[in-house]
Amino acid sequence: MDFLSLFFTDFIKQLQSPTLAFLIGGMIIAALGSELVIPDAVCSIIVFMLLTKIGLTGGIAIRNSNLTEVLLPALFSVITGIVIVFIARFTLAKLPKVKTVDAIATGGLFGAVSGSTMAAALTLLEEQKIPFEAWAGALYPFMDIPALVTAIVIANIYINKKKRKEASDSAMQESFSKQPVAAGDYPSTRQEYLSQQKNPGDNKVKIWPIIEESLRGPALSAMLLGLALGLFARPESVYKSFYDPAFRGLLSILMLVMGMEAWSRVGELRKVAQWYVVYSAIAPFIHGLIAFGLGMIAHYATGFSMGGVVVLAIIAASSSDISGPPTLRAGIPSANPSAYIGASTAVGTPIAIGFCIPFFIGLAQAIGG
Amino acid sequence: MDFLSLFFTDFIKQLQSPTLAFLIGGMIIAALGSELVIPDAVCSIIVFMLLTKIGLTGGIAIRNSNLTEVLLPALFSVITGIVIVFIARFTLAKLPKVKTVDAIATGGLFGAVSGSTMAAALTLLEEQKIPFEAWAGALYPFMDIPALVTAIVIANIYINKKKRKEASDSAMQESFSKQPVAAGDYPSTRQEYLSQQKNPGDNKVKIWPIIEESLRGPALSAMLLGLALGLFARPESVYKSFYDPAFRGLLSILMLVMGMEAWSRVGELRKVAQWYVVYSAIAPFIHGLIAFGLGMIAHYATGFSMGGVVVLAIIAASSSDISGPPTLRAGIPSANPSAYIGASTAVGTPIAIGFCIPFFIGLAQAIGG
Amino acid sequence: MDFLSLFFTDFIKQLQSPTLAFLIGGMIIAALGSELVIPDAVCSIIVFMLLTKIGLTGGIAIRNSNLTEVLLPALFSVITGIVIVFIARFTLAKLPKVKTVDAIATGGLFGAVSGSTMAAALTLLEEQKIPFEAWAGALYPFMDIPALVTAIVIANIYINKKKRKEASDSAMQESFSKQPVAAGDYPSTRQEYLSQQKNPGDNKVKIWPIIEESLRGPALSAMLLGLALGLFARPESVYKSFYDPAFRGLLSILMLVMGMEAWSRVGELRKVAQWYVVYSAIAPFIHGLIAFGLGMIAHYATGFSMGGVVVLAIIAASSSDISGPPTLRAGIPSANPSAYIGASTAVGTPIAIGFCIPFFIGLAQAIGG
User: Fold this and answer.
1) Which of A14, B75, B128, B195 has the greatest number of beta carbons closer than 10 A?
2) CA–CA dist B125, B117 (Å, integer)
3) What residues form the membrane-spanning segments (chains A, B, C) (predicted)?
């Protein structure tokens, strides 16, 4: 009773926070047909500045902290990233009208992390004055990369198995070598991650190029740059005079853009199986709860803060918006991008920001208080 | 005597203010052939931030204030917006070599509001430490929309009348139906605002789509978004850390761009009747004085501040630079854009910013002091 | 001994400063294949803001200072700019496989000034709390323009001489008038700076258009605009609230871009004679030392600060990145841009920022301390 009332008061208060209010505002003005456009160049530089700032915060914090504290939460991030993909593989993929490769790619996208969703969570925790480890944002790559790698690896194992089966089924038929490699409906133009194949059964997935591609993405490389500068240089002066004060304001613009983007993607949902919508609405909570549970273990074992547990939960609840899609497109060329991107942007991200952040903050306060 | 000396000292001092100095600087470097270019993406985001900030200020102020105070100034804004169009209809339109539809469109543009001119006025009032109602910027749409609607409606009534006359004149001639609808010299590709017509006399102007188009424009929708967020959310933290401190600096860049833009449009003036230049130089003062007079009534009746009266006068003196032109182009397709945009950008806006703002501030101080 | 230890401690400390750390970070992430891109529009507005800020600082400082102090450093800037071009003419141009016009153009580029390198020097001096004249940044055009003018003039004199020689050599041969004017290998499409020629020997270089083109470039016109506003207007409010606080942060982004740009140009070095690389690595130190020496004269003669001497040295050590290249391309169309731009961006600029700034600051401290 007390929990619920506390929770709802908090929820309403958080919807009024600039971060969520701009997200909702963006959806509303897009729904009303506003011609407002935030230029792409502005979005790019905002993403760069937000992730550089998160990296700098993490780097400076790690430089001044005990590295052993980071170990357990980082391990739990890796585990969560991998588990999320397997959940999609064994739930979403089994549903009618859902292609297995599309489901795996969707799992990869939901396992990967959205920098802007994480930035929103960090800001809301600050506004609520809930303390969290300054290096919490640095957990990002520990969940992001394992999720993408897992998705691409199991998608390609599935494709190979299917192909071997088809090959033996059609042994008497026309030479297999003329058939396209990808089994799905979509053209496969990039297959960098697949080793040079002599025969179909020989397809091996190289893991390192997937990791490399993830690390090179604009969001993650901005964050790792910030992390390295925070660790090895003395960026405190620009951090305090520039990256930190601009953070919330820039985030408000980005939230507006994400709200408008979410609304504009709603139309795409009609083209894909309705199960993607159901999955995108439920998955952020399930993923968040798994990470929240693991975070609680770290809370009791090593004193990981309740704020840190919320960050871990939100990283899990978020789905990648910038780096994830191109990596998946390259890694699983036969999956349909409008299946995984549409549902994630139009449903998953607004749910993660607008519902999961207040929910997990409320949960942490109810448990911790 | 005392009035004049006070006025001129002030005038010089205000030309040195960053806002006006950057405007003049922009004109000078453009005149000297500078290759400096401020990218479009930067201009868009500056306009977004300025108008969001004005909206936020207004929304927060209205939330904390007595709504009845706003009524009289808002009503006077509507009246001024409508009157300005009729002035153009009965003065500019009667002049030699001026097409009636072009004159009405020009009136609509001068009745509509420039967010950047208003931002300049608000900044100069602050610099001069003249208090004004925080919601004064929210008067913008109350003048902008009525002016655009009035211009489009009376332009189309005029076009229809003229057509009916032509139709009866040429009753014996070739079938009217093959003739283009628009009477002017310019191609009419968009006629969304005209109802489906069965015969020429049937042309009715739909008012709601014009209002909708105005509200959807990038400038007005940024402002209304800010207003709504200010009213219903708690944006104080980003307002204080981001939108408010950046306001003057961003405005200085926008003023520079407007100065360069004004200079680059001077060439266009040669192509249109010289009466447009005369009108653009005089109209800002006439419109401002009408609004100033109405504002004084509100000053004595409901205690509307002298600073607020200046804001009302400058809103009236300004001519729309962002949202107005596309709305008019769609609403009065037969009017010549280079007639109304050229004169407004090259003459009207610099006069409004560089002369009307100091003039009305001086007037307010002389009366109020 | 004491000098060296002081120098090296300082050097390491300065590499950790945000300015240099972002430059190095940019090179590293580019080398690692990061897909991070800072949009061009963002780079343009950053350059505009940095140079406007430097101009404003200079203008406000000159308004409040004794103009005679500026004379000697300004004269030394002019001398250094001219001398640098002649050094290239009589060293680089004499080396094997180096075309004379290419060498002169390279000299012009190294004599001209990089606003971002200068901004980095000013920031590092502030971080080290070494005082310098606020107008020191205003020395920029006094070195930049003479260098470009000298390079273009002596390149064209050389081309004309060569042509006269060829003309007399081939007097018996086919009519000269059909041959292209430029003697080099590259197509010459723009020859605005050459007077209309009746016969080859008549080629006269007009100096004023070169100066005009330099002044009109985006970097220099932003700086001169700031200078004029600082001198004649009262821009202190936007200076303090916007241009000054944003300076270091924006510079950090620009340094990152320059680091990435430097790395991406390394490939171009293979296409040109290796002497360009040697020249680009040594020249910044030589040029800086010449200016440092002249600056010391001003230090003893008129009390020019040691910080100011460092600024003068860095202006000399830097090579132009924004305005210089297009001016040289127009003025010496027969020179090969990839010879002078590649070496300057990939080698000269990183050396000037990463090595010369710490070196000259260390030198000034060792001498001054």
Assistant:
1) A14
2) 12
3) 20-38, 45-64, 70-92, 104-125, 137-159, 275-294, 339-361
Mutate which: C14, C252, C254, vs A, most A CBs within 10 A: C252
B245–chain C Cβ distance below 8 A for any pair: yes
- Beta bridge partner(s), residue B194: B205
Q: Which of A44, A216, A235 is opposite residue C21, by nearest beta carbon?
A: A235
Q: Is A10 on the interface with B (CB under 8 A)?
A: no
Q: Retrieve residue B207's tokens.
A: 């008012």
**Integer-rounded Cα radius of gyration of chain A:** 21
Q: Are B237 and A18 in contact (CB under 8 A)?
A: yes
Tokens at A55, concatenated = 């990296």
Q: Note the ipTM here.
A: 0.81
Q: Are B84 and B314 in contact (CB under 8 A)?
A: no
* Encoded amino acid at C101, one letter: V
Identify the residue whose tokens are 């704020």: A307
The percent of chain A in helix, strand and coil, each rounded to the nearest 5, is 75, 0, 25
The single-letter code of the amino acid at B141 is: P
Q: Is the pTM of this model over 0.80?
A: yes
Interaxial angle between packed helices B115-127 and B18-31, expressed in degrees from 0 to 180 and rounded to the nearest 10: 130
> How far apart (Å, rounded) are the C-alpha atoms in residues C204 and C187?
20
- The type of residue at A234 is R
End-to-end CA distance of chain A: 14
Structure-token pair, residue C312: 């003068």
Specify whether the CB–CB gap between C279 and C339 falls below 8 A.
no
Give residues with Cβ within 8 angstroms of A211, minimum separation 6: A145, A149
Residue with tokens 């004309």: C160
Of A17, A28, A250, the CB nearest to B234: A17
Closest-approach residue (CA) in chain A for B51? A36
Task: Name chain A contacts of B216, Cβ cutoff 8 Å.
Answer: 32-35
Per-residue pLDDT of chain C (369 residues; tens, 9 = 90+): 566 776 677 677 777 888 889 999 999 999 999 999 999 999 999 999 998 998 998 889 888 877 888 999 999 999 999 999 999 999 999 998 889 999 999 999 999 999 889 999 999 999 889 999 999 999 999 999 999 999 999 998 898 888 888 877 776 555 444 444 333 333 334 444 554 444 444 456 678 888 888 788 888 889 899 999 999 999 998 999 999 999 889 999 998 998 998 888 887 777 777 889 999 999 999 999 999 999 999 999 999 999 999 999 999 999 987 778 888 888 888 888 878 888 888 889 999 998 999 999 999 988 875
Distances, alpha carbon B77 to alpha carbons A341, B70, B295, in Å = 46, 11, 9
Instruction: Give the neighbours of chain B: at least 3 Cβ pairs within 8 Å.
Output: A, C
Question: In a 3-state reduction of DSSP, which class is residue C205?
Answer: strand
Q: Which of A282, A277, A280 is nearest to A267 (CA)?
A: A277
